[in-house]
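Next up, sample data:
>
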Amino acid sequence: MIAHTDQLTGRERIALAFSHRQTDRLPVFDVVNNPDIFTAFLGSDNPSSEGLPTTRLSKLLGLDAVMVPVRSYTALIPRKENWSSSHAFTDRFGVEYTVSDSSWPLGIATGEVALDERLLDTIQRAQIQPQDMEPIADGLKEAHDGTGGEIALFAGIRSAFSFLSIAGGLVGLSMALYEQSALLHELIEASTDYWTQVGLRAIETGADALYVANDMGMNGSTLISPTHLREFFLPAFARQCRTWKQAGGRVILHSCGNIMAILPDLAAMGTDGFDGLNNLQSHAGMDIAYVKEHYGHLWTLIGNIDATTVMCTPNKTDIDDALATLIGVVGSDGGAILATDHSFHKGIPMENVLYFIQQAKAMGYRMNQDGGK
């Protein structure tokens, strides 16, 4: 490990990364999706993703940013008093979820709703509730505490594709593309309007960026055809990003899976589109060198260390090698944040999480001290 002294706060470092400017070291971030890590550091597994413990844990781990989801985040496990039974809950849109030991921090949709006029009416009537922004407000008190150790806070929200594919199921969504295309367009517009307002409220609350979880990919390809994404979902997403940017927000698109086929469409949004792309899933075939070459000037790249294999290895040199390779590709001009290609999820040994953070900081510091060489 290379000893170094941080010259900037995590929040400052993240802001510079989004400006594509070099900092004292490359920033390090990830989402902690393992309750055992919460328990080890805080004594409780934070079952409903409260903002204060989520942020406190990220600071204890030494991360430069934290992702805190709004309380209406699709599939997020609510507080126990809001469960409909001992193992299930129903969200405000009527979707039923089951909670299991392996599902945390989300529920598994087991009672999907029909993508019909009734759902459209429910979405159009949906209001942001007072408690929805509580995790963001609570997290910000810890993230921006004025002690000189501030980190950035990313407010986790959804967008139309992830929302509808979870609420109605991927099969239901796929059928609607062909059988109810006009209604689907209406559902997308209503969903976009709702989540746009949620994002605006998070910006007003003080979030440093919106973390828009809008998973459009699977291993090897997009979840539905690129043609259908272009026709139905991407125009609405572009308008959504433009509204957030005009309000002074910063936007991160988080998408699991392989979305290489629609990167040109996403790039066509230009500076009115999103600012950062996460998680660049190596295991799904996201080509980080290609993305950096063609789109690195437009987006800050966040992720790409394989969480499925590399992060689970007993051989720490695999982590070192992966970090060295990633930094060599993305680390020379400041437009990068080091992260895995998914999260610190169950199955990754805690010692590997700590080692990854330590080495990412040390190697990211060395990259900047060596002038990008």
The CA atoms of residues 217 and 257 lie 4 Å apart. The two ends are 18 Å apart (CA to CA). The first strand starts at residue 32 and ends at 33. The domain at 10-75+118-369 is CATH 3.20.20.210 (TIM Barrel).
